[in-house]
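Listing S7. Sequence submitted for prediction.
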Amino acid sequence: MMQICESYSQKHSLFNAMNRFIGAVNNMDQTVMVPSLLRDVPLLLEELDAGGGGGCGEREASLNPNGGAYCSCRDMYSHYVLLKSIRNDIEWGVLQQASEEAASRKKDKLNGAPGAVDISRGIPEDEEVEEDLEKQFHYHLSGLHTVLSKLTRKANVLTNRYKQEIGVNNWGH
C-alpha cells in the first residue's frame, strides 16, 4: 500500500480522507482473493469498535463460543461488499440517487410558494437558507470526514481479520 506523507493540516482534508479510504479498500480488495471465505464469519464487537464502531446494536450481539461477543447482523462478507460499494459511489458518483433527489427538490419547490417569509422571524426563507449554508457545509464536511475515517478503519480491520482467517501473518509487510 502506498504511503502518503501528510502535514497536520492535510490530515484533516476531505480529499485525503477519501484517498485513505479508497486506498484501504483497494488494499482489502487485493488481499481478499476469495471473498466467499468471508461468508458467515462474524466480526467480533471488539474489531468493530477498533474499526470505528457502528453496525451492530446490543440486541443484535450474541456470544461467541470462544468467549467474545460477535455481531450477528452482518458477517465479514457483508462488510466487504458494503465497503466496495461505498468506494464505487465515491469514485463514480451516485447518479441515479442524485437525479431522483433533484427531481424531488424541484417538485417541492414548485409546490411551495417562492419567496415565502418565515412569519415568526420576518426573514425571507431564501436569506435564512443562505446564512445557514456555511454552517451546514461545515457540519456535513465534519460528518463525512468522521464517517470516512471509520470506514477506513473497518476496511483495515477486515483485511487483517481475513489474513488471520486464512492463516497468513504479516503478509505483505
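Caption to Listing S7: primary sequence and predicted C-alpha cells for the chain studied. Residues 51-72 have pLDDT under 50 and may be disordered. The chain has six helices and five strands.
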